[in-house]
Amino acid sequence: xxxxxxxxxxxxxxxxxxxALAQDSGITQLERFMERAASAEGRxxxxxxxxxxNRPEYSKGSFVFQRPGKFRWEYExxxxxxxxxxxxxxxxxxxxxxxxxxxxxxxxxxxxPAAILAGDGSLxxxxxxxxxxxxxxxxxxxxxxxxxxxxxxxxxxxxxxxLLRRMAMQDHFGxxxxxxxxxxxxxxxxxxERFRFTPPPGADVLGN
Length: 208
Description:
The protein is mainly β.
C-alpha cells in the first residue's frame, strides 16, 4: 500500500525562487520550459496538507524525467519509496514492505500534474491554462483539467527564469500538495537504465 505522503503524486501516474521577468507571463515561461526541458533532473520538497487541518506531511527526494513518459521519482525522507516509469509501465516500490506495484502507463499522464513534467508537451490537450500574474517572486499559471476524471481539481504552476519552481495541487477532497523543485538541471540526456526497474528478490509484486 502506498504511503499517505505520496498518494497524491502516485495517483497522477499511477508524479522545479528567483524573480520572474515582468514582461514574461507565466504561460510564456511555461511554454519555454516545455520547449527546453525534454529531460531534466533535480531535487524536490513536498508538503501534503489535509482539508481537516491535520498536521502536514513533509517529504523530500530526487527526480529525473525524459519525455515522453519516462521518469524516476525517489522519496528519501521520511520513508523511502521509488516510482519508475519506462514509458510503458509504472513501478512503485516500498522498501519497508518489500512490495512492488506495477501497472500499464496507458493514458495515466493525461490531465494530471505528471503531464507537465513527463508528458508529450501538449498541455492544451488536457488543461485550460490561465495566467495568474506574479506573486512571491514567481509567475503563476492555473492549469484546469479538461477532464473531471483525474485526481486533481486544480493545479497551479509557479515559474521564474523560464524554469518550473513550484506546483500546488488541490484534489477533489480539499487536500493540497505543494512541491518545490530545487537544483533543477534541464537538457541532459538520461541513460536508459535510470528508467528501468527490476523487482528485488523476494518482493511481493502486485499488478502486471
